[in-house]
Amino acid sequence: MNIPKNFRYAASHEWVLEKNGEVIIGITDFAQKELGDLVFINLPNVDDELVKDEAFADVESVKAVSDIISPVNGVISQVNEALLDAPELINEDAYSAWIVKAKSVSGLDNLMSAEQYEELISKEA
Q1: How far apart are CA 95 and CA 4, in angstroms?
Q2: Which residues, 6 or more positions from 105, have their beta carbon under 8 angstroms from its beta carbon?
Q3: Three-state DSSP state, 1
Q4: Alpha helix positions (H), 1-125
Q5: Which H or E run includes 50?
């Protein structure tokens, strides 16, 4: 299982990477494997507010529709529109197929390290 060490993780299986004063958010490799082949994604809009522990997008797989939960508070500064035409990019590489970028972020201190996240998913597997 791929769990990059320089990312932070939420118990709801989203990852966060701090870069250039913003954060990048996506779903983890574990999450995409659990979901199966993704066929659709419903993205938020730029300037939408992210509220920690609330859904900001959803993905549809051949199995089900699942909410993507915000791991932080903030404001969306960019959405990955490439995913609209190719949601399977998340299946191919969950850590490069980011979903949104956000600014004015708070709540990063509550996220897990790679080691903590690995321990969490070992209990769920």
Answers
A1: 8
A2: 22, 23, 50, 72, 73, 74
A3: coil
A4: 29-35, 82-85, 88-92, 114-124
A5: strand 49-50
Query: From CA 43, how far away is CA 58, in angstroms rounded?
Result: 7
In order of 35, 111, 125, the CA distances from 83 in angstroms are: 16, 25, 27
Tell me which amino acid residue 46 is.
Answer: V
Residues in a beta bridge with 3 = none
pTM score of the predicted model: 0.95
C-alpha pair distances (Å), 65 with each of 22, 47, 52: 28, 24, 20
**pLDDT value at residue 124:** 78
Residue 31 main-chain phi, psi, to 5 deg: -65, -45
Per-residue pLDDT of the chain (125 residues; tens, 9 = 90+): 789 999 999 999 999 999 988 999 999 999 999 999 999 999 999 999 999 999 999 999 988 999 999 999 999 999 999 999 999 999 999 999 999 999 999 999 999 999 999 999 998 76
Helix (H, G, I), strand (E, B) or coil at 29: helix
